[in-house]
Amino acid sequence: MLMVRSILFNMAFYANLILQMIVLTPVYFILPRKKAYDIPKNWARSNHWLMKKIVGTTFEIEGLENVPEGGCIFAPKHQSFWDTFALLPWQKDPVYILKRELTWIPLFGWYVMKQRMIPVNRGARGKVMVAVMERTKQEMDNGRQLIIYPEGTRRPPGAEPEYRYGIARIYRDIQVPVVPIAMHPGLFWPRRRSIRFPGHFKVRILPPIMPGLDPDEFFKTLVTTLEKASDELLIDTVEANPHLRLPATAANRLAELRSEQQLQSVVTNLSTPSSQ
Phi and psi at residue 205, in whole multiples of 5°? Predict the structure, then answer.
């Protein structure tokens, strides 16, 4: 039954994408840019509905009050295709720095360029990257929210983190708050797999890291804060969904965290004076 539901969802997901692109493309390109963004946002909402009805997967968002007004950088964990679109309905005017090849895809590339996304040649250096940063700052000055995945690519839940220092340079240059976001969608929509798992999970938006820190200090703060929240959510998510088939990375990390909890409990008991 799990595989049947996964197949049905995947079929519905891609049919929904193709149908909306074909039917709504004329409307999308007629509307002003910000108003046109309602179309991909509603597409994201429809995907959430499909996941709930077909697979039985739901989620909730904590910490929306932590999102500052005006320009900021969202720094979410990246585990699944799900987190590339899932938060769109809660983001006022998001912008991505993406590889330029994506803009060459028919229809999709046109959608991307209308929203003034920032294409970049990943092999570029020097003046090209300076121009990218200047363009990014212009968009942020207009109150947009930049989405950056600090690890650069999708990582399995519980995997050893591999953060890239590029976000620290952007933080230094752009001078806006950075909002870490912890979540484990990869437990329900695994990367590079077609199966989808039912259950419920949380997306936790953490307090922003304000501008002004030294880049090294910022980078350390981001990694420490996001990994601590991710570990807490991993424990909570597994306890709330005992049926989940955990990938090896998540199972190993969960065992490490539980061992640390047990050790901390023993240390606390030993350091607490016994009552007479």
Answer: -90, 120
Separation between Cα atoms, residue 240 and residue 168, nearest integer Å:
34
Burial 242-252 (b: 16+ CB within 10 A, else e): eebebbeebee
| Nearest one of 57, 59, 75 to 67, comparing CA atoms | 75
pLDDT tens digits, one per residue of 144-162: 999 999 998 899 999 998 9
Helices (H), the chain: 2-30, 33-36, 38-50, 108-114, 127-141, 166-174, 215-240, 248-271
Within 13 A of 255's CA, how many CA atoms are on the CB side?
Answer: 8
Give per-residue pLDDT as tens, 47-72. Answer: 999 999 999 999 999 999 999 988 89
The Cα 119–Cα 146 span in angstroms is 13
What is the rounded (10 degree) CA torsion for 175, 176, 177, 180?
-90
| Alpha-carbon gap, residue 182 to 224, rounded angstroms | 12
The tokens describing 155, both together, are 């990582």
Sign of CA dihedral 35, 39, 40, 42: positive
Average pLDDT estimate for 247-259: 93
Tell me how far apart the alpha carbons of residues 37 and 268 are, in angstroms, rounded to a whole number: 52
